[in-house]
Structures are given as C-alpha cells and as structure tokens.
Amino acid sequence: MKRPTIPDLAQAAGVSVSTVNRVINQADSVRGPTRERVLQAAQDIGFYGLGSIEHAVRKARDTHRLGILLQQRGRTFYENLGRALAAEAQRHDDGQVELTLEFLDDLSPDHVAARLVKLGQTCEAIALVAAQHPMVADAIDTVMARGVPVAGLIAPLSASGNVSFVGLDNWKVGRTAAWAFAKAVHEPGKIGILLGNHRYRNQELNESGFRSYFREHTSGFTLLEPLATYESAAVARDLVEKLFADHPDLRGLFVSGGGITGALAALKDRPPRKDFVTVGYELFETTRAALISGALTMVISHPMEMLARETIATLVKAKKAGPGAGAQRVALGFDIYTSENV
C-alpha cells in the first residue's frame, strides 16, 4: 500500500490541501474544530506526518491555567483524587491544562484563605475543598474580583459572588444512608452520627437529608446529636468509644465525614454484633476491608474519575465564560458499595 499523502489526508478530513498545509505549518490560523478533524483523520489513515500534526495542533490549543486546593496529602481519599485530577488534566482535549495542585495540611480558615488568594494570582480558575468560613468567603470574593472564577469541590461554598460547585447531591446522600438503616436495622433504636466539621456544608446537608428521611418514613429511631471529628481519626475513635459507653444500646453509626479509619478501629475492638449497622463514606483499602469483614454495612462514595473529569471541565468552562457568566452546579451520582460488590 502506498503511503498516505497530504491530498489523501485532505480528502479524509473533508478539507482542502491548503488547509492541511496550514494545520502543519501555522495551526493557530485554522479554527479549532477543523484542526481537530484533520488530526483525527491523520490518525485514522496512518498519515506519515502524524507526529508533526499532533505537535502543531497541541501547540495551537488554548492553555488553561487551573488551580486546585485539596486537603491533607496523607489522607487516602485526597491522594487518590489528586492522582485522578492530574491524569484528567493530562488527557483533557479542550486545550492544554496547566494544573497547580496543592495539598493543605493546615486547614485553618486563615491559611486556606491565604493559599486561595495566592493561587488566584497565577491561575485562571480555581476549585477548592474547604469549610464555610467568613475568611474563606472573603478570599473567594477577592479572587473573583480579579476575574478568576472559583468552584467549591465536594463541599459547596458561598460568597458574595457566584461560586460554582462540583460534588454529590448531599441531600440524597443523607436520605440514602437513612434508607439503609431503616431497611437493615431489625429493631429501631439509637443511631450515632459523626461528621468532620459543622462548617462543611456537604456534611450538614448529609445530616439534614438523613433526618428528613426518618421524619418522613419511620418511627422508633432516635438520632443522636452529631459529633465533630475535625477530620481526625484519633478523635473519631475516641468519640465512637464514648458513644458505646454512653449508649450501650446503640443500633447504628453514620459516619458522614472525616475520621472513618478511627471509627472503624473502635468498632474493630468491640465484639461483633450482627444487628449493628454502620454506613460510611468513600471506598478505599480500609473501608473495602471493613465491608468484607462486616464492620461496615454500606459505603457511599464519590465516583473518582467522573469527579476529576467534571472538575477540570467545569473550571475550563468557567474560565472561558468569564466571572459574569454565573455559577455552575454539577451534581454527580454516587456509588454504593456493600460486601457483595466490592
């Protein structure tokens, strides 16, 4: 078979020979969709100059400077999310993504606010995981006043400007967790609730949906006041041990926020009870093992690759639309795991 020529490529792409030549030599003078069509045709027919076309098209694509602030690197969930975001930034096909990804060990509002403002000096759109706080809201307004759109990631955030959001429908998360207790607990009784911090709006919404389900559908359950772990496994372990000490008749535990490894450690130290139901958050090695052993009844989890994909896409879209375009809200479906499907 003869080697495909430029006229062959032009015919396969449905463009003129001169357009193919411009894609190769001056790609930024050709409209983006046309460039991409020529590149796809070159890949399809095995064009000998494919490498030159890929380089030219890549160089001509828009560059998006995006920033993302995540929480502690040592937490498995955020390590996994960071990898997924970096991979998605590499394969994103609507321009080149230059991603600045930071993990914050210090989650104090003033530190988060300072890092956000600093990132806003070099990035064109930013997403962050943070607790709602006046300092953080003021930093968001400062960054958005510079024309840099901001999105809350996982936890919704609000400020004077329009803040976008990418994450789960947390009302549904809470009601789904409540459904599991209502169906799996044989004798209604007390249910303990752990959350990371009352200022994380996703966790507050989880609890709100959780309580609304019981108010609507069931009676006989007593939902204890939520206890804050402050994202600490050690604190979570102590709180679970105290829950059992104070309420020996506890029927279940809903871990709505951080510290689940500590909560599971406390459960592991106790004699197993077949009638005890635990619903937790995020699937990773520890929670997977707990599902298999029976320490966890159900896990509600973010779909990691979809979360990464939608985060990058939302930031690119927000950057292109500009700060006056209004907030975007991307509510993802969530994954549900039991011992039978891990």
Defining key terms:
342 residues; Rossmann fold; 3 domains; 7-stranded mixed beta sheet; 6-stranded parallel beta sheet; 18% strand
General description of the model:
It is a single chain. The protein folds into three domains: 6-60, no CATH class; 63-168 and 304-333, Rossmann fold; 170-301, Response regulator (Rossmann fold). It is built from 13 helices and 13 strands. The protein has helices at residues 6-13, 17-25, 32-45, 50-60, 76-91, 109-119, 134-145, 170-184, 201-217, 233-246, 260-268, 285-293, 304-321; strands at 63-70, 96-103, 125-128, 150-153, 164-168, 190-195, 222-223, 227-228, 250-255, 277-281, 298-301, 329-332, 335-337. The strands form two sheets. Strands 6, 7, 8, 9, 10, 11 and 13 form a seven-stranded mixed sheet that branches. Strands 2-1-3-4-5-12 form a six-stranded parallel sheet, with helices on both faces. Strand 10, helix 12 (285-293) and strand 11 form a beta-alpha-beta unit. Helix 1 crosses helix 2 and helix 5 (76-91) crosses helix 13. The protein is elongated and about 80 Å long. The N and C termini lie far apart (49 Å).
Strand content: 15-25%
Overall structural class, as computed from helix and strand content, comes to alpha/beta
Please mark out the parts with pLDDT under 50 across 5 or more consecutive residues, or reply none. none
Rounded to an integer in angstroms, the radius of gyration calculated over CA atoms is 25 Å
What would the CATH topology of the largest domain be? Rossmann fold
Q: What's the helix-strand series?
A: HHHHEHEHEHEEHEHEEHEHEHEHEE
N-to-C span: 49 Å
| Domain module count | 3
Second rung of CATH, namely the architecture of the largest domain: 3-Layer(aba) Sandwich
